[in-house]
Amino acid sequence: MSLGHLDGPSTTGRAEQAAERIAGLVRDREPGARLGTKNDLRALCGVSVSTFNEALRLLQARGLVTVRPGPGGGLFAAEQSPIVRLGNSVLALDADQTTVAEAIRIRDALDPLLIEDALWHASPADIAEMRAVVDEMGRSAEAGDATAFVHTNWRLHNRIAETSPHVLLRSLYASLLDLIESHTLSVLPDGDEPLPPYLRERHRLHADLVDAIAAHDRAAAARLIREHSTVKHRTPL
Fold this sequence. Notes:
mainly alpha; Arc Repressor Mutant, subunit A; 3-stranded antiparallel beta sheet
């Protein structure tokens, strides 16, 4: 009696392996090229339906494949996503890179104003919530999960912005973060440079920034926010 595919104790590990195998096919094909049907690719990977679906979810989240239904459908190598360079990483986007790059640039320009407000208006409860988010950033950094790290980072900046008494400034900043976050598909390494050391360094910087806000240390906060502003723009690969 056939029991089908038995994925063993680590379905997540098998899904990652299947995703990497299909990602290898993507790297060898032109954008938009057909990779095969779901059944063909699942058989190639030798995994169960549930494991393959998890692998497919990972590939779509990373912007590597698209799925088309119907005759002639299946999995296709995704069209190249526009990207924006962010420190030692790149954001893969589903929108025009110029729009998102401009939003990041404006957001960076507003950061010193919001940090200045936080120095004077952040309450002990605000600081406690900021530190909880920083701790979450640390866990993402240790796990090497760059996408989770960046989204948590933006949540920290939004929490800092919420301490400002200026409604227009808060609203503008939140709108910029929403635009950036809603169009970010994934966070990828920039070339061959590994992300984990960069994530740990950025976690330290944000932890120090929250400490400076808590201590009302204007000089330290100004130095850290200058160090923080490392955004450069890059054309699509």
